[in-house]
Each structure stands twice: as C-alpha cells, then as structure tokens.
Amino acid sequence: MHLRSNGFTVKTEDLESLAATKQQHGVPVALQACHTAVVDGYVVEGHVPADLIDRLLRERPPVAGIAVPGMPLGSPGMESPGRAAERYQVFTFDRNGRTTVFASR
After folding, report:
1. Domain coverage including residue 71
2. Rounded to whole angstroms, how far apart are CA atoms 25 and 86?
3. DSSP alpha helices (H): ranges in the chain?
4. How many domains does the chain have?
5. Nearest-angstrom CA–CA distance, 27 and 47
6. For the segment 51-102, what is each residue's pLDDT rounded down to a tens digit?
7. DSSP state, 105?
8. Could you give the CA distance from residue 60 to residue 80 in angstroms, rounded to a whole number?
C-alpha cells in the first residue's frame, strides 16, 4: 500500500522459499525482514520508506540494496495510532556483506 500510494508499481509473487530469494540477492542475515523486493536492480528489504527508495534510485550508489531490519513501529506499514514511532536505521548493503547507515528515522 505504501509503495503504491507513492507511485511505485508493485507486483507480488508467492515464493516457495523467501529465504532462498534473500540469499540469492545477498541480503545479510542481520538485515533480513519480512518483505523482499527488487526495484530497478536494487534489493529492497523490509519496511523501507518510499522516499528513501527514490533517493537510492536517484543517487545510484554502488550497493546491492537497502534494508530496514525487523518491523520497527512507525515504519511504513507498521504505523500504530496512539503509539509513538520507534527510531530505526535504514542500511545499504553490498554483495560482500558490508553495511552502511543510509538514513535514520
């Protein structure tokens, strides 16, 4: 819903093994979350805000993808009226498992 409402076209696929897909795309175990997508060649893992996906696509850093590990309260799709949002970090990762903080929310 969040990505669609921010202009992204979303195609869903039911996979036998999401874990195999994450491994195939080089998502580090520590960054794995509940959703995995590929957007213009980049892996998007977890509840990543649309504006940060836009930034990733605009800046095109030499990374494999971007991730929000876990399911932080207040991240897109994890909003809870009446509850304060958690602070969380958004990471980039490369195929060698190196991670860098891309943004903090």
Report:
1. 2-104
2. 28
3. 2-5, 18-24, 50-59
4. 1
5. 14
6. 999 999 999 999 999 999 999 988 998 888 999 899 999 999 999 999 999 9
7. -
8. 32
